[in-house]
Write a structure and sequence with these properties.
Two copies of one chain form a homodimer. The longest helix of chain A has about 30 residues, at about 160-190. The first copy, chain A, has helices at about 15-25, 40-50, 75-80, 140-150, 160-190, 200-210, 215, 220-225, 225-235, 240-255, 265-270; strands at about 10, 30-35, 55, 65-70, 90, 110-115, 130-135, 155. Chain A folds into two domains: about 10-160, NAD(P)-binding Rossmann-like Domain (Rossmann fold); about 165-270, N-(1-d-carboxylethyl)-l-norvaline Dehydrogenase, domain 2 (Orthogonal Bundle). In chain A, strands 3-2-1-4-5-6-7-8 form an eight-stranded mixed beta sheet, with helices on one face. The first copy, chain A, is built from eleven helices and eight strands. Chain A is α/β, with parallel strands linked by helices. In chain A, helix 3 links the parallel strand 4 and strand 5.
Chain lengths: ~270, ~270
């Protein structure tokens, strides 16, 4: 490990991002010395996993060479407030919070944003997680770039605005897609159809766009402008007003994207024919 | 190949389902003897791929032991009309069309519905494609069940109604998810952010639910009830009314699902604060 690297990292938080990042740091040979977390139970658990010491707060933290704040977006200003004037190099891991919220702590501050969906009990190959970084100065940028490159094959610089857009794009592509999976599961289970039948389709849909633009990969009745199938779906959803609304919103957007001169309001009139 | 199997299959259609099913039949050792398609160009191309003869219509088709109608949903009744009284065993491959549309053709009729998103230029491992079957009588059911099991590891019986529900669930989980990917790509490209950054997240989101229920796998600001992030997203989407509508619809549904006592209309009021 070179002089330039971090040998005494303090990790703040014990949620899913802290866990996965902590494990990735450990596996890459970095030393997480302390885990700091307001809940001792989860904090001690993660400290144990990482071979680190648990601390309840910053009062007895001694000269870390990097503080990584991996807590929820809302809690970052609070943590920054506890680090005023500490002069420890510090980054947060959040997509939507500005870099400058950490200015109060140190002249070396930045962002280390691993762009992936992390759950506590789900293994993730961190080498495939894009890490989006930003920093207050070039020298510190180089240091956290090197750290990021030790963990992941994809590292890029994004400023506050671009990082926010990426986060928003992730909400559409991941959080909302996952909710669609939940809707689909619910539809199937209500009708005694095994959810497993849907898994290969979901996998293939995500796989397809690794090599094909999404607009090229699009299939389905709205893409084809297939009015009779859309009307059959209206009938199946007649007792599910929330799903019907979502169905119409998507279908209208897709019909428009593929220049079909119809909308679901035209089709609605014929739903009982 | 046993007596019971199909050695002289006529495949109707030359679109993505016909292509992938035809190739799967060929690879499993079945003989596709004829490809029937109204467009000679695409029909001949597929016939060549399958080592079959192209026919423009049914007039010179001689005693196939199975006719597989793999055309668009709308065209199936038309094809059925051309097969009235032919007595050839016949199936269609469609999720939304009733089995009985084929009753006019034969006493042995049914459905052979491969549940996957197929694109012309995208290879698919057919052994992992669930095949949902149904048939007019038990003997014919057994025959197409055997055919399905020769191609795929997942075969199940679904009646018309369940097949329609599965198709609808697929529209939510696949077509609409893919459209979300397209939205995300558009957001990124407009802001000069590489779409590739999003691919690992999309992959992991689809992978996660192979082992975790979607409602358990859900992450993101709406799941957490994180109002300040949701409001930041409103601001980023203020010039994108269609996306903002979609964002609000999802967010309200997710807030409700996870029992957060707020809705986007409460947050809207504060968007400029």
């Amino acid at each position: 490990m070179s002089e330039n690297q971090f040998n005494k990292i303090a990790l703040v938080g014990a949620g899913s991002v802290a866990i996965h990042l902590g494990l990735a740091l450990k596996h890459a040979g970095f030393k997480v010395e302390n885990v700091i977390n307001r809940s001792p139970e989860r904090g001690k658990l993660l400290a144990k996993k990482l071979g680190a010491h648990y601390l309840a707060d910053f009062s007895i933290l001694i000269n870390p060479d990097l503080v990584i704040i991996a807590v929820s977006d809302d809690a970052i200003p609070l943590i920054a407030g506890q680090l005023v004037g500490c002069s420890y190099p510090v980054v947060h891991t959040c997509g939507t919070v500005t870099k400058d919220v950490l200015k109060v702590a140190s002249s070396d501050y930045g962002v280390f944003y691993p762009f992936q969906t992390f759950s506590v009990n789900n293994a993730v190959d961190f080498s495939k997680v894009p890490v989006c970084i930003d920093a207050s100065n070039t020298a510190f940028f180089k240091r956290i770039e090197q750290l990021a490159q030790s963990l992941s094959g994809t590292v890029c610089q994004l400023d506050d605005q671009k990082r926010r857009i990426l986060h928003l794009a992730g909400v559409f592509a991941s959080n909302f897609s996952n909710y669609l999976y939940a809707i689909a599961e619910d539809l199937l289970l209500k009708n005694n159809i095994p959810f497993e039948l849907l898994l290969p389709l979901i996998q293939e849909t995500a796989l397809k766009i690794q090599t094909m633009a999404p607009l090229e990969a699009q299939t389905g009745p709205a893409k084809r402008g297939d009015q009779s199938t859309i009307q059959k779906h209206f009938q199946l959803l007649q007792n599910e007003p929330d799903l019907l609304e979502l169905y119409k919103t998507f279908t209208d957007n897709i019909l428009k994207t593929y220049s079909h001169p119809i909308s679901t309001s035209d089709l609605d009139l014929n739903v009982d024919k």
